[in-house]
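Structure tokens please, single chain.
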Amino acid sequence: MKYKSVIALVVAAVVALVAVRPHRDDGLSGRVVDVADGDTLTILDASKTQHRIRLEGIDAPEWQQAFGTQARKALAEKVRGKTVHVEYTERDDYDRILGKVMLGDRWINREMVAEGWAWRYRYSENASLARAEADAKAARRGLWQDKDPTPAPAHRRHAVMTSLTLTLKDRA
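Here you go.
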């Protein structure tokens, strides 16, 4: 009898874990409760579980960069308080879900690039994102108002090197 109780408990635990994890087949839907920056948001699903979502294929300016605040505001105006659907592929190194964020039939990732609030990832083979970025650049929308905007990865590398240099100077 004790053996059956243990099995029932294990089965219940597995079912509970599966219920709160997003399912790759169906995607994930929820109400946007937070926008951290121009490419990261948090949704609350029907079971009241929060999920951090990183918009796949794009990279918005960091908040310290030119247009970083505007990119965050643009994303927030599009999705905050609204129910979105996320078609996802994997998680990143920070355990965020990497996904295509849909608001009805609107692809939010692409809109952010098309409006100039984000770059497309260079490794991305998505032709739609490439066209959206080229159009935004040609029209000088968003971050493309700068002649040569610094991509977020280059900004992050520079910030790390500056911090390291200052630390080394302090130790000398």
